[in-house]
Amino acid sequence: MEGVIDAHTRDLLTRRPGFDWTVTEFVRVVDARLPPRVYYRHCPELHGRMITPSGVPVTLQLLGSDPAALAVNAEQAAALGAGVIDLNFGCPAKLVNRHDGGASLLRDPRRVHAAVSAVHKAVGSETKVTAKIRLGFSHRRLALDCAKAAEDGGASQLVVHARTRDEGYRPPAHWEWIGRIRRHLNIPVVANGDIWCLEDYWKARTLSGCRDVMLGRGALADPLLAHRIRHWLNTGEHLPPTPWRVRAAILSDFAALQRTTLSGRLVTSLIKQWLNHMRKRNAEAERRFQALKRINELDTLLAGLNDERETALETTAHGSEPTPA
Ligand SMILES: Cc1cc2nc3c(=O)[nH]c(=O)nc-3n(C[C@H](O)[C@H](O)[C@H](O)COP(=O)(O)O)c2cc1C
């Protein structure tokens, strides 16, 4: 996820068993072949075997609209070591769509086909090409055509975020629509959108009929969500809610990894960004966020995350306990 899930986050989220694979932030392709440093920056795992430190495979994602440019860049990424290349046809960002990238291609399935097949031809059979779509741009009428276009173009897997571009991130995600697509495709279809907890996971699977799901914001809100799902699948047991001390430890580890290369101020805002994702579903994270949001010094922020007294003070200050959204 662009600006949110980098190699350090992938590392932290995959330390406990849960994820089968992860994806990089998109590499934006305009017209030229990008230099290797761009790929290494988005995907430091290219220096190794395209796995996280705990061994979970990493897919490299490209976003663009020009088939020829996507093809040369995919070729480049494959030469650098990417074994799976994903094409992003789901990004709803205005800037990206204005420049004819991301979900804007869903207005014409032929363009999805052209992009996927150009990349598929360029990388050859050694490298897998996958795709990610939404249900459409402003309506769902072309959802199946776009999905089929990706399959016919050579995609070996399709992730479907169950909303149109115009629906943005507004609930609900229409998981049943993923099922309508899945029934007409021969490649694996992965359900995505609004999976925040175990119950959502099961509902998304049931309504879509998909065996696999992709987690986005839910994995930031509860960093143990993938593990929770895996544990339940393996044992039938429900793990307890992720305690604050585990969350604080993950945020502290995140800071330690990020501060090796970034300034304290930047790391401080990255921690707050993650805390912001957590607070939407967790009352303690909400309390910490409110207490710490104006702090700009990293060590003070970390002390506040790990300080148990902080919570007591904040509970008193706010009066009542906020409920998770
Ligand atoms: C801040 C942000 C950045 C994102 N960046 C990407 C991206 O780079 N590539 C991508 O395929 N999807 C990206 N997404 C979309 C998510 O992968 C996912 O499809 C979407 O958030 C719906 O799933 P969720 O409800 O589980 O978050 C991004 C979403 C957010 C909120």
Automatic annotation (TrEMBL):
GO molecular function: flavin adenine dinucleotide binding; FMN binding; tRNA binding; tRNA dihydrouridine synthase activity
Cofactor dependency: FMN
Residue numbers annotated as active site: 91
Enzymatic class: oxidoreductase
Annotated site (Interacts with tRNA): 28, 88, 169, 272, 293
Entry EC no(s): 1.3.1.-
Keywords in alphabetical order: Coiled coil, Flavoprotein, FMN, NADP, Nucleotide-binding, Oxidoreductase, RNA-binding, tRNA processing, tRNA-binding
Residue ranges annotated for the DUS-like FMN-binding domain, each copy included: 1-295
CDD domains attached to this UniProt entry: DUS_like_FMN
Highest rank taxon of the organism: Bacteria
Binding site for FMN: 61, 132, 161, 192-194, 216-217
InterPro entries (UniProt xref): Aldolase_TIM (IPR013785), DUS-like_FMN-bd (IPR035587), DUS_fam (IPR001269), DusC (IPR032886), DusC_C (IPR042270), tRNA_hU_synthase_CS (IPR018517)
Record flagged with keyword Flavoprotein: yes
Coiled-coil residue windows: 275-315
Tagged with keyword Nucleotide-binding: yes
Catalytic activity: 5,6-dihydrouridine(16) in tRNA + NAD(+) = uridine(16) in tRNA + NADH + H(+); 5,6-dihydrouridine(16) in tRNA + NADP(+) = uridine(16) in tRNA + NADPH + H(+)
Role played: Catalyzes the synthesis of 5,6-dihydrouridine (D), a modified base found in the D-loop of most tRNAs, via the reduction of the C5-C6 double bond in target uridines. Specifically modifies U16 in tRNAs.
Family: Belongs to the dus family.
Alphabetized PANTHER family for the sequence: TRNA-DIHYDROURIDINE SYNTHASE, TRNA-DIHYDROURIDINE(16) SYNTHASE
Protein name (database record): tRNA-dihydrouridine(16) synthase
Naturally occurring in which organism (per UniProt): Billgrantia kenyensis
Lineage: Bacteria, Pseudomonadati, Pseudomonadota, Gammaproteobacteria, Oceanospirillales
